[in-house]
Amino acid sequence: MHLQNGKSQAGQFAIDNSPDAVGQSGYYAESDVLEYTQRSLTNIFLNGTHVFEDRGWEIDWRLSPTFSSSDDPDIRKTAFTFRSDGDVMFNAGAGGNPSRSWRELNEINATAKVDFTKDYALFTNDAKLKFGFGHTYKKRDYEILLYNIQFWGGQNWEEPDASAVLDPENIFPNRPNSIYYMSGNSDPNPNAYESTVNNTAAYISNEFEPFPNFKTILGVRMENYVQTHTGRDQKFANGNTETGNNLDNEEVLNSLDFFPSVNFIYSLSDDQNLRASWSRTLARPSFKELSFAQIMDPISDQTFNGGLFPYPDWDGNLTETYINNIDLRWEAFGNQGQNVSASLFYKQFTDPIELVRIATQQTGNGYQPRNVGDGTLYGFEFEFSKNLDFLSPSLKYLNINGNLTLVKSEIEMTDTEFESRKAYEKTGEAIDDTRDMAGQSPYVINAGISYNNYDTGWAAGLFYNVKGETLSIVGTSLFPDVYVAPFHSLNFSLNKKFGEEQRTKIDFKMSNVLGQSRESYYHSYGAQDQVYSIFNPGRTFSLGLSYKF
To answer: Whole-structure pTM over 0.70, yes or no?
Structure first.
């Protein structure tokens, strides 16, 4: 399977830099950004299943290498700064000089696994033993190259026209602008890295019924995870070999972990189950998070700093997040895929990873993934899918579905974060040592109504989704937290199958029917929320034709 896509986007921005902000000089600039991104993914999948019925054994093996790439060839950013006298110019200390950057990512992800299943009898009931082995190898190569436009002498621009900047009369040695290129890349490049992962795993589980209608599944999984990294920070790249950091295929994560799980399923009736489970899982930092890379988003002008970067309030030792999960679920099933369920869940986190604003960069716009204090969350979920034929036989092709999730999350602040917030505590504010978990919405609502007539081949659907306001970037020092506002997503789809055996299908889709904008804002005690970012994706229409062989 091969997937290939490309996306081009252009943006025009008005940059109003207020001198009232800490460390800001105050200026106004207008910026043009041109960006093109192309991605590809190639996957090869081989699978074999061998059944030995007379012995009750089944063996399943899989080999699946995946090759992926993501390239941003020639991102161009041009920002004219407007002076108080009305003239326009490029100012490195204000809107910035024009820049061009190239980003390239290539990754290999190869997985091999084999599973064994044995059917046997236990407590006079059917039982099933499963065990298996697997290995995953990942390798990523990443690089950013940057070039800046410089000026020999003065500048003179009749108007702020980005398309005229590289006209021949503006190139050195022509005066007055005399443009020349200067590399923004140190040697070695701090924004180039190579990382590998070797993850060897094994598991064993047993499914049996110790009592009638009571199914038990016990299991444990072992993983030996080793991640290496080749890269360096800005200090080392600029010649500071004493305090700078440089890694040459060195281990940045090495762990041997066991993940037990316990599942109980009690059949209340033929169409109702009561489930209870406990499991231990983990979340590991990504390649990008476990690096020294500094990645700037040309649209938002935000800079992502890899978690290996040490700062005065961060040691650069990014590690895994361990999670304990407890779930209790009731579910009932009907015909034609109808169902209804209700769940209670609880999760406990050790060393969760969150995006944190870098407090020491008071004049910058950088953030970094860090391990924060331990956390918990608990909540309730209700889900249903129901055909409307119970109202009238004429509605048998209509189906409604939805789910509601309510969540309460809490993170225990580290001493550094708590003291940082206390240092900027406002009059009347009482800062506690806990806060919301980043990335966790307090509620999620999904709802949809669909029509599917198998006889005529017509199908349609209208689907709605919204999440409650969510902490996105953890503020520190003088920076307040950044929250994402609820985005009311309404999408519509219509398709028609026709021809022999309905192999041909035409699809029409419309996304963001309500024309909503994605907004995030600074949230601070006793102050009106201030805009952090607004993105208007507009409405998207697509038309597709497919044929099934």
So the answer is: yes
